[in-house]
Amino acid sequence: MKRLFAVPVLLLLTMLVGCGVSSPTEADAKQAIQKHISDGGYKIYKIAEIHKTNGQTGIRDGVPTYKYEFEGEVEFTEYCYWNGGDWLPVPRAVRARLLLGPTRPDENIVRMGERRKVSGYVDFEKTEKGWRYYQAGGLSFLKT
Hints:
The protein is α+β, with helices and mostly antiparallel strands and 144 residues long. The protein has helices at 2-20, 26-39, 92-99; strands at 45-60, 63-76, 80-82, 87-89, 109-110, 115-127, 130-141.
């Protein structure tokens, strides 16, 4: 009789524990990263693809959290240049010159549609309806 009682209890515990270890999906992370980019006023690139490199669960103020670390690529929606601290749109007068030929790989100029590798992380917090984007940071452009 004890065995018959133990089986349903073990099944219930397994289901509850299994439901508690979920993590945000790649789609959740991609959406959060794009929101972070847009909220920061960066309309010059969009997230093209990402893949998870690491993850970590935690608790903040009694709320379950998840740190989603990733690498991926952004696609530029405008001609841009690196000013030493940020990507900025290329002035119109310079664009015509860029169309004449390819830029050297060591130049800090990208064309519209060009992709660059990035890495970073997104923090999520667990709600009744699933994982919610909390903050993102550390979006770094990687050397190509």
